[in-house]
Write a structure and sequence with these properties.
192 residues, mainly alpha, Growth Hormone, Chain: A, 7 helices, 67% helix, globular
């Protein structure tokens, strides 16, 4: 009788953990979609006007070993990347480049997504050092690029498009397939 009771208690605990995990994932997926939508709405310059400003930022997870990290580590690396995106778009130069309302919506969405990820953070889980350094180097390139282009509208548009591609390509469970991603970014393909 005791084993049946333990089995039932274990089953209830497992279903609670699974439901909680699914609730978290649904909340996070919803927030990721909102962030992507607000980033797309931030567009202010037609793509064809910025072709001369294109550059290769060498995204570390498009062609690199970061795609082979475990899900928990990838989530931690994604959280670190979101912080970098948040700081990039929360700068004074960014505030001068984008309409205030749209930029605030993006920043609020990024902050909400970070809060969802922070609530689920496992103790001691962090982004492996080589990937953390790759992410920091990647974002340092954006700041240098923007300075070199005097924070022009086209330079911000190039960065915005790169962020759209980087966020959607980050190696996480449940991300969209490459076909869906490429079709949703078809308009932006001129800039990449």
């Amino acid at each position: 009788m005791l084993s049946v009771h333990l089995f039932l208690v274990g089953g209830v605990m497992l279903s609670c953990c699974t439901a909680s995990s699914l609730d978290w994932y649904a909340s996070w997926s919803s927030q990721r979609r909102k962030t992507a939508r607000f980033l797309a709405e931030l567009k202010s310059v037609p793509a064809y006007q910025c072709l001369r400003d294109r550059t290769d930022f060498r995204c570390p997870w498009k062609k690199g070993p970061i795609a082979q990290v475990k899900l928990e580590e990838a989530t931690s690396c994604y959280r670190q990347m979101l912080w970098q995106v948040f700081h990039l778009f929360d700068s004074e130069a960014s505030r001068a480049a984008w309409p205030e309302m749209e930029l605030d919506q993006l920043l609020d969405s990024l902050w909400s997504e970070l809060q969802v990820l922070e609530r689920t953070r496992e103790q001691g889980q962090s982004c492996p050092l080589p990937f953390a350094l790759a992410i920091r180097t990647y974002f340092r390139g954006f700041f240098r690029y923007l300075e070199g282009k005097a924070h022009s509208p086209c330079s911000w548009e190039i960065v915005r498009v790169e962020m759209q591609a980087a966020l959607s390509a980050f190696p996480l469970s449940g991300r969209r397939s490459p076909k869906k991603r490429s079709s949703s970014l078809q308009e932006e393909s001129l800039l990449s």
